[in-house]
Amino acid sequence: MPTFFSSLSELDQRSRQLDALAVQCPHCLCSGNLIGHGRVFRKAHGGISVCVGKRIRCSARYGRNGCGRTIRLYLAHRIPSLQHGADAVQAFVLSLLAGVRVDISYQNATSALSPRNAWRWMNRLRRRLPEWRSRLMDVASVRSGPFAVLFPTLAAWLNSGSVADSQTARNMAFF
């Protein structure tokens, strides 16, 4: 079952069709027990709540034999567990690939006054590196130093389009 969707209407349509499609729960592998369980909201600037996804529950009520666990489906322009959207992450990665320092890349991408999370983002990128390389297969390393493997992999990953497009196409969170 895909985790990322390009629009909220596509996400709603998919959640309405869960019974008809007999989609399996990724936890217990039972089919026909998934039901919509509300939306996922995130606070935007100014304290406004914005819908960024939807929860799906494997129901164990009313004669169903599901496990009761919840699955989250997200819009592709949002990254799970990250305050900033996919466009900020893409701007960060592209400026890194252009040779800009990590702290300045972070400040330019997020408009933050302090770059204290810049290295946290770099650590998250490094943690995802093995998974990206396994999906990309053939990436040649042309740099040297601490980012010799990371930068060519990121460049190859983003060749197909934006961060949001890659999340939708590969069904995998960027961070």
Task: Report on this structure.
This protein is α+β, with helices and mostly antiparallel strands and 175 residues long. It has two domains: 4-75, no CATH class; 86-170, no CATH class. 40% of the residues lie in helices and 16% in strands. The chain has seven helices and four strands. The chain has helices at 8-16, 18-21, 86-97, 102-110, 118-136, 150-158, 163-170; strands spanning 4-5, 34-43, 49-58, 70-75. The protein has a four-stranded mixed sheet with strand order 1-4-3-2. It is elongated, with a radius of gyration of 19 Å. The two termini are 19 Å apart. The model is unreliable at 139-143 (pLDDT under 50).
Short descriptors:
175 residues, alpha+beta, 4-stranded mixed β-sheet, 7 helices, elongated
SSE blueprint:
Elements: E1 4-5, H1 8-16, H2 18-21, E2 34-43, E3 49-58, E4 70-75, H3 86-97, H4 102-110, H5 118-136, H6 150-158, H7 163-170
Parallel strand pairs: 1-4
Antiparallel strand pairs: 2-3, 3-4
Helix pairs in contact: 3-4, 3-6, 5-6
